[in-house]
Each structure stands twice: as structure tokens, then as C-alpha cells.
Amino acid sequence: MYQQMIFVNLPVNDLEASKKFFTDLGYTINPQFSDDNAASVVISDTIVVIMLTKPFYATFTDKEIADATKTSEVLVCLSAESRAKVDELVDRALSLGGTATGKTQDMGFMYGRAFDDLDGHTWEVVWMDPAAVQG
Known about the structure:
alpha/beta; four-stranded mixed sheet; 8 strands
């Protein structure tokens, strides 16, 4: 059965630093779709983040590239299998130079935290109780 994929394209200031940040978070780089201008970060079988140098990113758009440290241009939300996994991923991101952003959201059945990566892109990590989703 076909599974639709998502490819999130993000402009970055320092491709090597961004690659290190995401591999240190536990993700892998797919070398088949990576070069000096781009890196393909495999988040899951259906989620891939393409980090592009800003000059290369500019070839895909006529719009001004947002400075994500000053303007919110994207909010990427990833699911986690437990509250502990939310904390593990966000704490690891913070230890690698990410910045805490927003407030911890704890609604009992749903728990989430967020961080900004090295370029200011916001990543939310959320756990939701499967029983709450079904009923």
C-alpha cells in the first residue's frame, strides 16, 4: 500500500553544523540525496527533512527567505511514543545547542515541548495517550 511521504525543506546557515545537530539527535543522513548544498535527514520512513544552504534554497523560490531566529516561518511537530521520549528528544536538542521555546504543554492525555534548532526553526515534540485518540 502506498504511504505518502513528507519532505520538509529548510534553509540553513551552516550545513555541516546542522548535519551534526540532527545526527547527534539520533537521525541519519541519506547520502544519496545529499551534497555540498543539501542534506537529507531521515526522520522516519515517511518523513525526510531536506536542509538546504540558503543560496541553494533561494533557487526554489522567488520569495525572501525568512530569518527563523526573528520570524516564525514554520513549526514542525513530531510525535513521540511516550512523555519520557518527548523529554529525551527535547533535552538532547537543548544540550546540542538548540533553544527552548514555548511552554511545556501538559494536558494529561497530551504532553509536548518545543525547541528551536540551530537556525531558529521550531520543532514541537508531542505525545498523546492512544486511548484518548480512540475515544
